Amino acid sequence: MSSTAEPLAISVNGLTKRFGFKTVVDQFSLEVERGQIYGFLGPNGSGKTTTIRMLCGLLIPDAGHGSCLGHDIRTESWAIKQRVGYMTQKFSFYDDLTIRENMDFVARLYGLPGRKAKVAAALERLGLADRRDQLAGTLSGGWKQRLALAACILHEPSLLLLDEPTAGVDPKARRAFWDEIHTLAADGMTVLVSTHYMDEAERCHRIAYLAYGRLVANGTVAEVVRGAGLTAWHVTGPDHRIAVLAKQLEGRPGAEMVAPFGATLHVSGPDPHALDEAVAPFQSESGLTWRRGDPTLEDAFIHLMRGTEDHFAPGGRR
Amino acid sequence: MNGPRFSLARLLAVVVKEFIQMRRDRLTFAMMIGIPVLQLILFGYAINGDPRQLPTAVLSQDNSTVSRAILAGLQNSTYFRITVLADNVAQVDRLLDQGAVQFAIEIPVGFERRLLRGEMPALLVMADATDPAATGNALGGLRQIVDSALAPLLTGPLSGLAPSPSPVELRVHRRYNPEGLTQYNIVPGLMGTILTMTMIVMTSLAMTREIERGTMENLLAMPVRPIEVMLGKLIPFILAGVVQVVVILSAARLMFGVPMVGDPAVLMLGLLVFIVANLAVGFLFSTVARNQLQAMQMSFFFFLPSILMSGFMFPFRGMPEWAQIVGEALPLTHFLRIVRGVMLKGNSFADVWSDIWAILLFLLVVSVLALTRYRRTLD
Ligand SMILES: Nc1ncnc2c1ncn2[C@@H]1O[C@H](COP(=O)(O)OP(=O)(O)OP(=O)(O)O)[C@@H](O)[C@H]1O
Ligand SMILES: [Mg+2]
Predict the structure, then answer these.
(1) Least C-beta-crowded within 10 Å: which of B188, B221, B319, B338?
(2) DSSP of B30-64, one letter per residue?
(3) Which domains does chain A have, with CATH numbers?
(4) ipTM score over 0.95, yes or no
(5) Is CATH 3.40.50.10490 correct for B54-175?
(6) Do B17 and A75 touch (CB under 8 A)?
(7) In angstroms, what is the span from residue A45 Cα to ligand 1's centroid?
(8) Which of A180-184, A307-311, B367-371 shows the lowest per-residue confidence on average (mean pLDDT)?
(9) Hey, where are the domains in chain B?
(10) Which of A55, A59, A77, A109 to mutate: most B Cβ within 10 Å?
(11) Percentage with pLDDT > 90 across chain B
(12) Which atom of ligand 1 sits closest to the CA of residue A48?
C-alpha cells in the first residue's frame, strides 16, 4: 500500500529533544503510512510522550525535522492541530464540565457543523449517552478514557495520536476500545498508539520500540521478535518446583530472561549455546518437561531494554 | 504563519466553557458578590464619615449656667460624650496626645460674664484630626449645637444677644492633620480598589488553573488562538465586574448617601474600561505565573502600589514627583479621578476623556504583553 499521491501520515527525521542537559529523545526517525495502526512502546521515561508532543506541535524539537499529514511540525502546527486528534496520557478534559459540555466545547473549537447531532452520535457510539450529564471529574478512570477518546475523534482527524489510552481500563472495555481503533483505521485514519501492554502491541500493524530516547526496534511484531535474535525454552512442572527453578536459573550466564507464565517458565537468551548450557543441569530432572519455544514479544522488549541499558545507560549518555 | 483569522465561534466556545465553570465554582462566585459588599460595609463604616459618641474632655474654668448649658448641649447632640472633666491645660494636652479623647473643650474664665456683656468670648475646641473623617461632622455641627444650647437662656432682656450673629466665638484647633478629606472621597475610591483586587485575582488564576489542573495540554493541542482564549476568559468576568459595580453603587447610595452628580453613562464607560484593564493585568500575571500561589503574589504586588500611590490613601498631589509618575501609570489613579469627578463634581465625558484614554493605553500595552507571553507550546 504505497502512497505516492498522499503524503505519509508521519514522516520525521532526527528529532531530538533535550530538557536541560538531559537528552530525552535522541535522533528519532519514523515513517508511518496512512491507515496504519502503529504501536509505540518503550519503558517508563523512554520519551514516548515527549515524541508524541513534538509530532503535534506541543513541543519544539531541538534538532531534526519532519511532517505530519504533509504539514511541517515546526511551522504548520495550526494545520496539524486541525487534522490530528491527540489523546493525552493524563486525563486533561475539564473535571467541572459534564461529559456533554466537554464534547460541546471541543465541537465548537473545531467549528463542526451539526454540532448537537455529532456530539449526540459520538456519545451514543462510545456508550456514554446515559452519563452525558455527569461531571467528568466524577467518572471512573476507564470512563474518563472513553470520554477522552470520544472527544479526540469527534472532528474526524486523519491522524490519531493516543498516549496510553487504555491504562487502567478493564479487559472488556479495552477490547471494545481496540475494535473501535481498528474500525477507524479501516476507514482510513492513521493511529499512533503508545502502550505498555503486549497484547495491544500485537494488535498493531507495526510497532516502534523506544528505549532511552532512541528507536531500537521498528517493524511488524514478527520482525521485531526475529530481530531480537532470541532462542527460548519453555518448561512445565509442579508449581513449587517452577518457582524454585526460576530462582536457580536467574542470573546464570546465557539465561537472560526467566519469566513464569502460569505453570510454564519461559527461559530465553540471545546466545543459543550459552542458553543451552545454562539450562542443561536441569533438563534431566524428572517432573520437568522442556520444549523449545518461540520467544515472545515481551522477551524481545526486555532484551532490547537491557541491550540499550548496556550501551547508553549510566555514563554512556551525554 | 500560525493560524488563520480570529474566530467568533471559537471565542464563543471558550466563553461558554468559562461561564459554566464560573457557575459551578459556587465559592468563587459567592466571593465575587460577597467580597465587595463585605468590604464596603467593613471599610465604609470603619471610615464612617459621621461617627458619634466621641470621647471628649472638658476643661471648665467658668462654673456658670451658660457653661453648663453648653456642656449639656454637647452631650445631647450625641456627637460628643464627655468622659473627663479636666483640671488644667497640661492634662488636656496629655489626653489628646495619648488619643484618650478625640476632643477637648476649654471654657475660659469669666465666660458667662463676658458673654452677657456681649464681648464674644471664645470657646476653645481642640480636635485630634489625625483621622479627619472622625472629627469632621462633629466639628461641623458644633456652631449649631452651641447656639441652640444658648438660645433658651438668651431671652427677654437678653434677646439682643440671641444667635445670628452668634454671641460666642468658636476657636477650633485641628491638631495633627489640619487639611482633612471628605468622606465621599472614600466610598467611590473603595469601589476602585475593590474592583482592582477582585478582577485581578480572578483572572490571574485563569491560565495557571489550566496548567495546574493539567488541562493546558489539551487546550494547546486544539486549534484555538491566544486572543480567543484571553477574551473568552475575560468576558465572563466583565459581567461579574458589572454585577459588582451595581452592588457597590447601590450600597454607596443606600448606606452612605454618596451622591451621583454627573452622568451615570460616563461613569459606566469609565468603569468598563477600568474593569477590562484590570482583567487584562490579571491575565498577564496568569501567563507569567507557574502556579496559583505565584499568581496571587503578583496580584498583591500590583495591588499595594495601586492603593498607596493612586491617591486613594494619600492625596495624589502630596506625593513626590517620582511617585506621581508611577501613580500615573496605574489604572486606579485615573479611575479615581473619573469616579470622583463624575459622582461628586459632575464631570462630563470631555472632562474625564484624558483619564479614559490613559487607561485604554494601559490596556493595550498589557494585552500585547499578555498575548506575547501566552504559551503556545509546553516548552
Ligand atoms: N517538561 C519536562 N522537563 C524536564 N524533563 C522532562 C519534561 N517532560 C519530560 N521529561 C523527562 O523526559 C523523560 C521522558 O519522558 P516521557 O514522558 O516522554 O516518557 P514516556 O516514555 O512517555 O514515559 P511513560 O511510559 O512513563 O509515560 C523522562 O525522564 C521525564 O522525566
Ligand atoms: Mg508517557
Answers:
(1) B319
(2) HHHHHHHHHHHHHHHHHT-SS--SEEEEEEE---S
(3) 10-220 (3.40.50.300), 231-294 (3.30.70.330)
(4) no
(5) no
(6) no
(7) 5
(8) A307-311
(9) 54-175, 182-378
(10) A109
(11) 26
(12) 21
